[in-house]
Amino acid sequence: MARNPTASTSTPTPTSTSTSTSTSTSTSSSSSPHKYSVILPTYQERRNLPVIVYLLAKTFKQHDLAWEIIIVDDASPDGTLELAQQLQELYGEQHIILRPRTGKLGLGSAYVHGLKSCSGDFVPKFLPQFIAKQKIRDADVVTGTRYISGGGVYGWDLKRKVISRGANLLAKIVLWPGVSDVTGSFRLYKRPVLERLINETVSRGYVFQMEIIVRAKATGCIVDEVPITFVDRVFGESKLGGSEIVQYAQGIWMLFRTV
After folding, report:
1. Per-residue pLDDT for 2 more than 50?
2. N or C: which end of the chain has fewer CB atoms below 10 A?
């Protein structure tokens, strides 16, 4: 997500997913005029969280970028929040911002909650590639895709690959979203764009990602794609189940009727 570099704003994301409407400027000594906020919604991610935070922090530092990571934990019973507090002590409160919630309230609302604490210009949700791509056309949204040359998935069985491909194909046929991957969550948004899209979006579960990108295209946003390789979680299992598949089908029908 991004904000106008001449204005003061704030933003975090799992967008990364991150969002925010605060008004604080960055005083970082970074060579970049922008600050990047990453929103990480978590639920039972104690073992995965240190890995993703380390990789994000390493990437930001290597490219001399001002950054923050907003962690929105939904009362994980496995100690994710306690681990996040340790990461905050390690990296500093200016880089790791904790915004826990009292229950498992859903992915979409986690992004909304995180955005309220962002202070960055951009919210990326492959950071360097996304940043470079955004500059070419001053894109409003840059989304990662597994389904163009250079992209792919690692660690999925055949069943999950077929479900994912089928879900994206169905959305492309029915909704004409203008992108090859509507369900991915690796994205970079201009902050004002994300704030507007979130206000318009009604979905709060797994349909959230699809609705955001469909509404972005429908309202004339410049949306570009970057090929990514999706690596499945190191620990634990995917939270995608039968109820999420039903929600997805219902979401396509809702967007077909309303967008």
Report:
1. no
2. C
